[in-house]
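thread: overnight batch results

M.L. [08:02]
morning all. the overnight job finished for the chain we discussed friday. pasting input first so we're all looking at the same thing
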Amino acid sequence: MATSATAATIRIPYFAITILLTLSIFPTSTMAADILVGGTGYWTPYCYTTPDAPDTLKGFTVDILKQIFQDSNDQVKFMVLPWKRCLKMLDHSQLDLVLDGSRDSKRLQKYMFSDEVYQLDNVFFYLTKNYPNGLMLQDSSEIGKYTLGGITSLNYSMYPFPESSVQHRAANMKGMVAMLRYDRFELGIAFKQILFSNARMNNYSMKGISFTAIPEMNPLRFYIFGNKNEKTKLIINKINKGLAEMRDSGIISKLQRKYGLPEN
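M.L. [08:03]
and the structure it wrote out:
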């Protein structure tokens, strides 16, 4: 004689799931959750390393996260990774957050973003000996007249020129400046704040180098981001609340002064 059994389905209300996730991510007991954060080591002064501590992330964005979670039981753990590795590990749920991404990047559209953390100015930098009267580009159609240099790991798809036109690439910004001085290209692509901060912190000269705005490019806004799931949503909500409180209390302005950034 055959027998059959019916499996019972237990339905948990959505609000109950949210509460359980909140308790697991932001516990009130001594049990803490790890929040794994990836960042590059060269995005000075926002996220960078120094020769004496190559495995330790420092910088403006790093300090913001530390401040927001300083009174939390959760353990924020930072990992120094190349940009492409950050995204790959995030896609495999090996990271919870990645620092310093732009919503203008097509490849990042699938992620969940915090509120704006900062914005950067897009510039071409060049040797003043080659352009003693300065250089100003009126529109993007003029860019094709020049050879362009960039960073190997960076994505240039959001710029008003084909990414394939960035034919000369260096491993880092110091290398890109060196290539410019050897006339490997005419115009280097950079964010002004990061380029000059990187030079100052890594002790290489910017003498004889000037810059001009990239036509048809507004300042890029940068964020902290992660996968679209309930855990990330709760973390991002906490970050957004912390950012607002830090702006109101003047802590953001204090950090901007610490890293030589313009206050806004």
